[in-house]
Every structure is written in structure tokens, then in C-alpha cells.
Amino acid sequence: MKVAFDTDVIVAALRSRTGAANALLRALRAGEIRAIASVPMLLEYEAVLMRPAQRHAIGFTTQDVDSFLDGLTALLEPVTPHFLWRPTLRDPDDEMVLDAAVNGGVDAIITFNVKDFLPGAARFNLDILTPAEAIRRLYDKDQ
User: Fold this and answer.
1) Which of 36, 47, 68, 106 lies 20 to 30 A from 24 at CA?
2) Beta-bridge partners for 34
3) For all residues of the chain together, what is the average pLDDT?
4) How far from each other are the two terminal CA atoms of the chain, in whole angstroms?
5) Residue 88: which residues within 8 A CB-CB, separation 6 or more?
6) Max alpha carbon distance in the chain (Å)?
7) Cross-strand bridge partners of residue 35
8) What is the pLDDT of residues 99-121, one digit of tens each?
């Protein structure tokens, strides 16, 4: 399965080591799934993770955030959006995830904000999954 992670999934993965979002990052590291990201997506990951409240909740220093993002970036397939289909969604930050997902040929966008991505799902025939749904799909497929 090839996916794009919304920023909320990255944050949730770092806040809870036992949640489905964290399990998805472990699956990415193990090569069980593939994920894409564009430069704007990575910049948003960084901006959100560098917020003092987020770093405090996660227990990261700024250097820890940098190290995490370096490691994550090494696991992601880079995508350069060639076409922008805006506006499709309400939130401009969601638009960059949709742009990268369509250009990267993903099977699904993983997010906690499923409702916000539904117009893009319908337009581009993408699955919009919560982390828990993605984990179920990943492991049901293997059985």
C-alpha cells in the first residue's frame, strides 16, 4: 500500500507509541508500506512539530525534531506536484497533501480528518483512511 500522511498522523504517531499512527510509521520503517511527501508537506510537518506545545507533549527538543524528520524523509518517496487541482478542499494545508497524493499515485491518504478530504477522494478516486483503518487494511491483506 502506498500512502500520504496528513500532518495529524505524524503528530499522533509521536504522541502515542501504542496507537495506530505510530504502528503505521513502524510499518513504513519495516518496508510494509510506502509513503510519499512533497517539500510543502515536509515543511508543514516541521512547522507543526517545532511548536513549543507539540515538542513539550512529545518530549522532543528542536534537535530531536530535526533528527526525526531527517529519518522520516529518508523513508519517504519524494513527490514534486506537476499539477495543482485547487481549490478542491476547504483547508489549503490539506490541498498540498491532496496534490502530492494525486501526483504520487497513492492508494490512500491517511488522516484523522476524513471528512475534510472526502471531496478529493471523490474527485480523484482515492481512499481516505484513519490510521486504524489503514492498519486493518494492511494486515487484513496479508492474511
Assistant:
1) 47
2) 2
3) 92
4) 15
5) 95, 98, 119, 120, 123
6) 42
7) 3
8) 999 999 999 999 999 999 888 88
